Amino acid sequence: MGQSIEALEILAEHFGKMEGVGRKSAARMAYAVLDMTDEEAQAFADAILNAKAKIHRCPICQNLTDLDICPICSDQNRDQSTICVVAEPKTVNAFERVREYRGVYHVLGGLISPIAGITPDDLKLKELVQRVADGHVSEVIVATNPTIEGETTARYLAKLLKPFDVKVSRLAYGVPVGSDLELTDEVTLTRAIQGRQIVEE
Question: Fewer CB within 10 Å: C terminus or N terminus of the chain?
Answer without folding.
Answer: C
